Model the fold of this input.
Amino acid sequence: MSAELRELRSNAAIRIIDWRLDSFDSDILLCDISKSGRKEFLILSKKKKMTAIIILCVVELALAVGCALTNGLVEKHETIKEAMRDAVLHEENRISLLGLEVNPSLIAGFTVTGIILLFALILRIFVIPHFTYVPGKFQLLIEEWVGFFKNLGETNSPHRNRFLGAYIFAAGTYIFIGTCFELFGVEAITTNGTPISLPAPLADINGAIMMGCLSYLIILSGGIAQNKFRGVMLTLKEFSLPVSMSFRLFGALLSGMLVTELIYFYLQLSIMLPVVVGVLFTLIHAIIQAYVLTMLVSMFYGEVTEPPKKKEKKEKKAKTPASPNDSNPNEQQAAA
Amino acid sequence: MVLTGLPLNIDVQQILLHLANFAVLFFGLYILLYKPVKDFMAKREAHYKAMDDEAAEKLSLATKQADETAERLAAVDEEISAKKKQASGEITEMRVKAEKEAQLKADKVVTEAREYAEKEKARIINSAEKDISDMVTSAAEKIFVSEDVNEAYDAFLKKAGQKGV
Done:
């Protein structure tokens, strides 16, 4: 709502009867101005919106011209083939961690963990102690964040879900924030001395394998805790689960990263397109992957922790009718 | 390097590092965020449940009291109705009794009046008899004393007419 519209709404002399947007996103108001029943249409904000659109177009044009002019000046230290191959295999661009050469995703993982824990610590110290029974917007957001995973665990695994809720909360948060992390393009220096933008932690095969296998182990531990040997058998039945979960996560996140990498490699494509490809795709990826993994884990966990159903004893049905009313009327007549 | 040479550059050491990282994140998030928020939500749920239970209890108590009051009102109505009936019966009885008493009194008055009248009649007759006897005596005396019986009889009738018997 525009400021102009807000101002009109606060004006006691004008009564707004109807409000809608036209094709130019201008506010069209049907107003009673004189309070004498005379109705008039007021068109607001059209000029302001048109000005904003024109400015945006000029800026985009300027950026495109700038890109075209500076295209030859950019020095690339690797080809697109090498960049893509390295994004998958991490053979070239490695980062030194206390003397160990590790993949950039691991550093991204540590960074994401640090950010999340710092945020959680701030919330724990400054926000959670001031929680009220009638929540505000921010409290509602936090409660919804925790409550979503808690309810997901409770719904899919009704028999045993305390640990599951905490696990899928951590996993979902890690996947979502980790995936969104690549949007910020945090730079790190590789062992080669070249700068690299840190990818999503789970875009690394090692991170994805960790998440997939850990999820499988969590499911297995839930099965053992609830159903002992039967739980083990139920979990082992889904032997392909760790591989499928790991590679689904890896493939999904890697594909997003590769598309982003491809777009950013060519400077001409980096005008406007990253808004859709980079931001929207990454956000959708983050939500979908977080939801898929947590949903799968909670479903399989619920399946293996389900207590065995007792076999119903088959009652032998008596051939003779239970009461004379149940028998065939013809037979009754014959008997009579 | 542990288990190097795996395809896709899978590195067990890095997997373990990822695992350690995630373990730290898991415990940190559990302690700092998940548990406190969950506990708060449970506390609030318990609070509202207690309020709900209390309200339900109060509602049940109020319903019970309303039922009791309705029952009492019904009993009072019944009692009032019974008392009205009783009062009406009593009034009828009193009226009948009063009528009976009045009848008795009237009868008594009539009887007494009759008795009185009888007595008066008797007294008058008695007094008349005495007068008659006196008159007869005096007449007889006069008859015996006077010369003519006819004169005496006339004198008797005259006297009797004067007395108005």
Summary: The mean pLDDT of chain B is 86.
